[in-house]
Amino acid sequence: MPTPAEIFDALYAQVVTGAGMTSSAARAAAAGTGADGVPAPFAAHLDTIRKAAYRITDADIDALKAAGLSDDAIFELTIATTAGVAKRRHESAMTAIAEASK
């Protein structure tokens, strides 16, 4: 039976490299810590997701659509961003647990 970490790693890989409407390069960029490689209108949205996702409003999504991003692109890049945030937070937590166990 796979461990939770193995399940997450498989999910993360699928989100970033699996088939989608956006390029895997754009999804990998969104999952990372920068904005290089994501569509320009998404860069500010990406930062908001990473720092304070609860602040995103319908108006923010409408602005992305008005800038030319499709619902699919917004969804895929948002999921990739949140997966990247989750991965980094999980890794930080596991490091802290390992250090506290020493």
- Count of individual beta strands: 0
Give the overall shape: globular
Largest sheet: none
**Number of helices, counting only DSSP H or I runs of 4 residues or more:** 5
Mean pLDDT: 92
Structure commentary:
This protein has 102 residues and is mostly helical. 73% of the residues lie in helices and 0% in strands. Helix 1 (4-17) runs antiparallel to helix 5 (71-100) and helix 2 packs across helix 5 (71-100). 23% of the residues are buried.
Detail the topology: elements first, then pairings.
Blueprint: H1 4-17, H2 24-31, H3 40-52, H4 58-66, H5 71-100
Q: What distinguishing features does this structure have?
A:
102 residues; mainly alpha; single chain
In short:
This protein is mainly alpha-helical. Helices cover 73% and strands 0% of the residues.
